[in-house]
């Protein structure tokens, strides 16, 4: 049974090959001072920077640049961004990049006018925002996180070896997001497939919880089928617009709160993956793929009916003459084969994890209670060992 909920996603999306021009509709809604936030330089190489700059200038904006947002943005970079935003009293943060840039922009938006240390307030204490929020807009160049239409803002603190996501409310969601699938063509294959798995895992984290017959799970199955199909095309033909646009759209719906409505969710793969990220700074999607099979095989017996449904409805396993456990196992085997086929990292050693890190990674993995099994530290360590 679906629980009670209210649903409103305030982010306005502009999707398609011509979507960048809609910046001309959005920019006049904000003051003249724009903080242009971007990553390590990909947007300068592929020309997106020039296109965005031309539109900003044409709209009479004064641009304060905030470059150098690294993958897995750090707390030190957050402090730097807050200073730029506050000193220049910017009216809008325009994030041009992937999830890291969009997440960071949201973190700056709530932290620039925060009177205390934002790491303590938002990440250690998970406090609500009670200060001025600078509006954020996104031009997405990397697909996976769903950050373009949600309140997530993940920040890494290397000194304390913690990577933590604060999921802010709808007042922090981007006001608008431009989604042009062509902008993702220049992504390295490694990043593209990491993003594809991030999408899959966002859906499965929300799907593998509860056993009710609800619409959210049917939507999730449809999104997964589309993703599996489009990913196979995109890895062979990265400039296939149909595949790349389907992947981009699936990513947004995978984590814009829709498929979690009215049901419980898990998120343990992300908790373990984020802790691996804090230790290794590895690419987010790969930290998830590398532990997923060990995790799902571990919890499968506790959520057997759902794993059986997953095998049949998502992976087309024929149930005839098989036990539920056999059907579920075949589904996970097909999932693993697909993961290997598209080129995901399937073990944590490859990400730089060494045996002496396992204890710390387990301790840094926040334990959630929405999945089929509330894990103990020992179980996390055994999942990590099985992922080596
Ligand atoms: O920095 P540049 O030079 O732009 O290069 C980036 C970066 O190296 C590159 N890239 C992006 N667009 C490109 C491109 N290269 C060529 N052409 C393009 N069009 O790709 C690399 C990775 O970018 P990044 O933004 O780090 O990737 P992603 O989108 O996967 O974001 C990862 C971050 O988002 C967080 C992750 O934890 C991680 O910190 N997440 C945010 C979530 C949310 N907001 O809800 C949920 C996710 O589960 C995730 O935790
Ligand atoms: Zn993710």
TrEMBL record:
InterPro entries: ADH_Fe/GldA (IPR001670), ADH_Fe_C (IPR056798), BDH-like (IPR044731). Keywords: Oxidoreductase. Residues 193-388 form the Fe-containing alcohol dehydrogenase-like C-terminal domain. GO terms for cellular component: cytosol. The keyword Oxidoreductase applies. Residues 10-181 form the Alcohol dehydrogenase iron-type/glycerol dehydrogenase GldA domain. Gene3D superfamilies: 3.40.50.1970, Dehydroquinate synthase-like - alpha domain. GO terms for molecular function: alcohol dehydrogenase (NADP+) activity; butanol dehydrogenase (NAD+) activity; metal ion binding; methylglyoxal reductase (NADPH) (acetol producing) activity. CDD domains: BDH. This is Iron-containing alcohol dehydrogenase. The lineage of its organism: Bacteria, Bacillati, Bacillota, Clostridia, Eubacteriales.
